[in-house]
Amino acid sequence: MERSNHTVTEFILVGFTTDPMMQLVLFVVFLGVYSLTVVANATLIVLICNDSRLHTPMYFFIGNLSFLDVWYSSVYTPKILMTCISEDKSISFAGCVCQFFFSAGLAYSECYLLAAMAYDRYAAISNPLLYAQTMSSRLCICLVVYSYTGGFVNAIILTSNTFTLDFCGDNVIDDFFCDVPPLVKLACDVKESYQAVLYFLLASNVITPTALILASYMFIIAAILRIRSTQGRRKAFSTCSSHLVSVTLYYGSILYIYSRPSSSYSLERDKMVSTFYTVLFPMLNPMIYSLRNKDVKEALKKLIWLTQSDV
């Protein structure tokens, strides 16, 4: 990829604060959040792999979401931790490109994966007797592969268009990672063609999956209303509640950041929203999908019992 401005060889990440004491506090907080993210998601993956009761399409997608969240969080948090404790706040041009690429690729992949999970819930509720046949292993694997392929192909488009912008000498990024809003602020001139690319990617990676999710839930609601018993309706809805919470939190923050014109970017406000979907959300996902899930709780109890027995 060819750079249009050869004077920028590195960027300076401002982070959250310049106060040394607050930086230390943030280091402890982010280290705790990252540790919990890795442990919680890894535990959920182990449970899904080891317990035969969790060998279903729904848990296959949840396991892949946990894997993606560990990877996603690892793109940002280690660099945040280094920025908090080190006087060197710089990130090389190549490092910024890599972080930006994987950030976009994983974010887009998660959008597609959440849409696939919505279809899975629709298949489970609309026709439970044919659920296993409809959501075959081959289809599940294809949906995951398509999610990653679509995410990273679009990340290539976004990365190539962003890093061919002209940066006007200033290399200070008022954020904790390389993202569209702060990089656009550094650009000399953002052409309409670049804004068009952003809207295209927003439509293909966020709006389209959102429409698919909404369509799936319209069919899910229709299927639930056809269930005669109140208990049956409640049970059917409970299988979707975790996914619905996850989708609302993730898509809400993504749409807030990237659905506005570049002229309306507010870096301080965007920084807080970005922190939620890049650092906090990957920690919350395993809790959302397991706290009220009896199968996961039973699998965890079994794993603890087996571990204690071996000791």
TrEMBL record:
- Entry-linked InterPro entries: GPCR_Rhodpsn, GPCR_Rhodpsn_7TM, Olfact_rcpt
Q: How does it sit in the membrane?
A: Multi-pass membrane protein
* Recorded family membership: Belongs to the G-protein coupled receptor 1 family.
Where does the chain cross the membrane?
24-49, 56-72, 92-119, 139-157, 199-225, 237-259, 271-291
The protein in question is named: Olfactory receptor
Localization (cell): Cell membrane; Membrane
Q: Which GO terms describe its molecular function?
A: G protein-coupled receptor activity; olfactory receptor activity
Q: Which UniProt keywords apply?
A: Cell membrane, G-protein coupled receptor, Membrane, Olfaction, Receptor, Sensory transduction, Transducer, Transmembrane, Transmembrane helix
User: Which Gene Ontology CC terms are recorded?
Assistant: plasma membrane
Q: One Pfam family, please name it.
A: 7tm_4
Keyword Nucleus assigned: no
Q: What does this protein do?
A: Putative odorant or sperm cell receptor.
Give the matching SUPFAM superfamilies.
Answer: Family A G protein-coupled receptor-like
Which residue numbers delimit the G-protein coupled receptors family 1 profile domain? 40-289
Where does it mainly reside? membrane
